[in-house]
Amino acid sequence: MSQYRLEVRVKPRPGLLDPQGKAIHHSLNSLGWDGVADVRVGKAIYIDLEAESAESAIAAAEEMCRKLLANPVTEDFAVALEQEAAAS
Amino acid sequence: MSQYRLEVRVKPRPGLLDPQGKAIHHSLNSLGWDGVADVRVGKAIYIDLEAESAESAIAAAEEMCRKLLANPVTEDFAVALEQEAAAS
Q1: Is there a contact between B51 and B2 (Cβ–Cβ < 8 Å)?
Q2: Bridge-based pairing state of the strands A75-81 and B2-12
Q3: pLDDT tens digits, residue range A38-60?
Q4: How many CB pairs under 8 A join A and B?
Q5: Do B51 and A35 touch (CB under 8 A)?
Q6: Looking at the 3D structure of chain B, how many domains does it have?
Q7: For position B46, which CATH number holds?
């Protein structure tokens, strides 16, 4: 068993209303950033997890998303090992 | 001027209390995931931005984090072009 740090990103689906994103968009325009076309706000969830392998850690995190972390009707999610995410 | 999609991740600093993360951690344990050692919750903000170059888009997003999106006392942030983030 090894320790893995996973990054889960949960994002509102395209086309659905995102009031928090709209509020940030408006604030950015007010602060002088005119080039901002759209803002969407989701969650970034960092999970330290003990698992047999990186694959099983990612599979567990995807299951967590389906059961708890993401709303399957309104949100999409992506899971990555944080080392990989940090390299981007 | 081109259109860029940036992903900003805002994360509570290590050591600071994160009640939302604690609540998720507890829920995951209740659902049977015993291998979870820690959970931290931050924000993932997706910004569509018009800019001269990828570098200036990233610089603008970092400035947005310092002025509006992140609390400099309690949060760290990272900015990436979404194409790069999606590749991870």
Answers
A1: yes
A2: unpaired
A3: 999 999 999 999 999 999 999 99
A4: 113
A5: yes
A6: 1
A7: 3.30.1280.10
* Cβ atoms within 10 Å of A2's Cβ, excluding its own: 10
A57-A58-A60-A62 Cα dihedral, nearest 10 degrees: 170
Residues B22-65 pLDDT 10s: 999 999 999 999 999 999 999 999 999 999 999 999 999 999 99
The Cα–Cα gap between B62 and A67 comes to 34
| Distance, CA of A86 to chain centre | 14
| Nearest CA-CA distance, residue B64 and chain A, Å | 7
Mutate to test the interface with B, among A1, A5, A28, A50 (most CBs of B within 10 A): A28
Q: Which residue range(s) make up the domain with A31?
A: 2-87
Task: State the residue for tokens 């659905």.
Answer: A16
The whole-angstrom distance between A34's CA and the closest CA on chain B is: 9
Separation CA A69–CA A79 (nearest Å)? 11
Q: What is the ipTM of this complex?
A: 0.87
